[in-house]
Amino acid sequence: MKILTANFLTCAVKACKASPAAFPLHFSDAELEQEETEFQADFLRNILPRIDWEALVVTAGELGFTSITSAKPEGDAVTDELLQELHRFLLETHVMEGKLVCGNCGHEYRIKEGIPNFLLPSHLGAYGIANGQMESEKCNREIKRGHNIRVTTLMI
């Protein structure tokens, strides 16, 4: 998984959607690999406005890349040297094994062979912990009342 990808990921638990602590996801036990690619200055200039710089600085610090400046560069501050450094960090650095950890709920998304697994366990589901429990309790009440409940489960 390229580091650039992590700058666009957030926790999939619904209860975390509104929490600022759910972004960025934090790397844990990360095994990094460098893979040289062709330098793409235009791509980096175009993607730079979309990057959450504060999250990028946090991620860089966690992974030991201390050369990323804390202030987001704009205008003349976007030098070829900076673009080379960003290219090396965002596009050439891959996380091959490890975990992404939510700062809000603590859920860990495993990264195996460079692919993060964002499938949630059934107890977290699409509604999150609290809402999932409420939905389950609601279904149990309806069944006790004699109502037919249709439950559809998608197995992947």
Automatic annotation (TrEMBL):
Gene3D superfamilies: 2.20.25.10. Keywords: Cytoplasm, Methyltransferase, Nucleus, Transferase. GO terms for molecular function: methyltransferase activity; protein heterodimerization activity. It is found in: Cytoplasm; Nucleus. CDD domains: Trm112-like. SUPFAM superfamilies: Trm112p-like. It comes from the Eukaryota. GO terms for cellular component: cytoplasm; nucleus. The keyword Zinc does not apply. GO terms for biological process: rRNA (guanine-N7)-methylation; tRNA methylation. Belongs to the TRM112 family. This is Multifunctional methyltransferase subunit trm112.
